[in-house]
Amino acid sequence: SPAPASLLAPADVSQGKGLFATRSIRKGDTIFVERPVVASQFLWNALYNYKACDHCLRALETAQENAQRLLGRSSQVLPHPEQCSIRKDLHQPCPQCQVTYCSAECRLAAWEQYHQVLCLGPARDDPAHPLNKLQEAWRNMHYPPETSSIMLMARMVATVKQAKDKDRWIKVFSQFCNKTANEEEEIVHKLLGDKFKGQLELLRVLFAEALYDEHLSRWFTPEGFQSLFALVGTNGQGIGTSSLSQWVHACDALELPAAQREQLDAFIDQLYKDIEKESGEFLNCEGSGLYVLQSCCNHSCIPNAETSFPDNNFLLHLTALEDIEAGEEICISYLDCCQRDRSRHSRHKILRENYLFTCSCPKCLAQADDADVTSDEEEEGEGETDDAELEDEMTDV
C-alpha cells in the first residue's frame, strides 16, 4: 500500500529507515491499514489443523468449531452464535490442489500473484514432491513456537517468477531492511540453532530443487539465500487471526441487561481458562508477512503505536497509543507486554539476540545507570503471565 499523505518514511543513512508523522495524530487513531507484499501461515500451525485462508490467513472455522478444537471438547456450545462472522458459504478450494480460501477474491488473488508456481495439484500429499520435501525439512528444523516460514520465501520467489515485470517485484523486496553478512549469519543462526550452517545448506538445495529461476539466480547462491533468509527473519511481522476472538469482541459490543452481561463475561473468562489448560498459548491461526510501511517503524520500549489484526485477516492496522505530533517518529515495540516490563539489561539482551541492535529509546536512556544484571525475581517470573494480561493477549487479535 502507498504511504498515506500523513506519513513520511525517510531514508536516513545514520538510522536506517524510520516512520514520521507529517500531521498531528490523536490517541486511538488508525494511522494506516496495510496489506502485506506477501504472507504465509506457519507450517506447524497449519499441520495442527489451525484452518486459515491460504492467502489472507482469515480463520476459517466458526467460533464454536474453534472453541471446540482448542478445548478438545466437541460438545461445547457458544451462546450468541449470530455474533460469529465466518461465512462458510463463501469459502472456495483451489480446483487443482484443494487448499482453501475464504473467498473467490482470495483464490484469484493468490492464483494471479504466486499460486500458479506453487500449486501442487494432485501431488499435494506426495512426500517426494520437491515443495513437500522443503516444507518437511523446515518443520524438522523450526519447531513451535514458530517465528517464520520457508514458504514466505517460496512465495517471494513465486511472485517474481509469475510477474510480467520481474524487476519491479525484485525492487519491492529489496526495500526491506538489509544486514551485513555477519549480521545475516547471526540471524540465521538464531532461527536454525547450533547446526545452522548444515541446515541452511540443506534448505538451500531443497529450495533450489523446488523453485530455481535463472532470473533470481543470486537468491539461490549460498550468500544470496542467507540474505533472503535474514530479510525474512528481520522484517517478518507475525500475524494472528481467530474466529473465537472475533466472536468475543462482537459479544463485548452487545448491549445486554446487567445480569446477562455478567453471566456472559463469566462464561468467556472461564472458556479462556479452560482453553489455556488444554491448548496453552497456541490459540490463533499464525503466520507472518512482509509489510513495506510497517517494516519502516523503529522500536521503542515505550511505543506510541501498535499493530493489530482486527479484520481477522492479514490486513495490518497501526493504531496510535498516544497523541503524536507532526515531526515525531512513530515507533512500535518489538517486545511483548511482559518483556517491556523487564529490566533494561534483559530488554537489550532480547533485542540484541533477535534484532541485532541496542535500544536507545527514552526509557532505556533513563535506565542507563541500572545494573547490568537480571534480577532473581525477573528470572523466576520469565515464564509467568498474569491471568488478566494473558486473557488480554488471547483476545487481542
Automatic annotation (TrEMBL):
<dbReference type="GO" id="GO:0045595">
    <property type="term" value="P:regulation of cell differentiation"/>
</dbReference>
<keyword id="KW-0949">S-adenosyl-L-methionine</keyword>
<dbReference type="GO" id="GO:0008270">
    <property type="term" value="F:zinc ion binding"/>
</dbReference>
<dbReference type="GO" id="GO:0032259">
    <property type="term" value="P:methylation"/>
</dbReference>
<protein>
    <recommendedName>
        <fullName>Protein-lysine N-trimethyltransferase SMYD5</fullName>
        <ecNumber>2.1.1.359</ecNumber>
        <ecNumber>2.1.1.372</ecNumber>
    </recommendedName>
</protein>
<dbReference type="InterPro" id="IPR002893">
    <property type="entry name" value="Znf_MYND"/>
</dbReference>
<keyword id="KW-0963">Cytoplasm</keyword>
<dbReference type="GO" id="GO:0140943">
    <property type="term" value="F:histone H4K20 trimethyltransferase activity"/>
</dbReference>
<dbReference type="InterPro" id="IPR001214">
    <property type="entry name" value="SET_dom"/>
</dbReference>
<keyword id="KW-0808">Transferase</keyword>
<feature type="region of interest" description="Disordered">
    <location>
        <begin position="371"/>
        <end position="397"/>
    </location>
</feature>
<dbReference type="Pfam" id="PF01753">
    <property type="entry name" value="zf-MYND"/>
</dbReference>
<dbReference type="GO" id="GO:0005737">
    <property type="term" value="C:cytoplasm"/>
</dbReference>
<dbReference type="InterPro" id="IPR011990">
    <property type="entry name" value="TPR-like_helical_dom_sf"/>
</dbReference>
<dbReference type="InterPro" id="IPR046341">
    <property type="entry name" value="SET_dom_sf"/>
</dbReference>
<keyword id="KW-0863">Zinc-finger</keyword>
<keyword id="KW-0489">Methyltransferase</keyword>
<dbReference type="InterPro" id="IPR044422">
    <property type="entry name" value="SMYD5_SET"/>
</dbReference>
<dbReference type="GO" id="GO:0140955">
    <property type="term" value="F:histone H3K36 trimethyltransferase activity"/>
</dbReference>
<keyword id="KW-0862">Zinc</keyword>
<keyword id="KW-0479">Metal-binding</keyword>
<feature type="domain" description="SET">
    <location>
        <begin position="1"/>
        <end position="335"/>
    </location>
</feature>
<dbReference type="Pfam" id="PF00856">
    <property type="entry name" value="SET"/>
</dbReference>
<dbReference type="GO" id="GO:0045814">
    <property type="term" value="P:negative regulation of gene expression, epigenetic"/>
</dbReference>
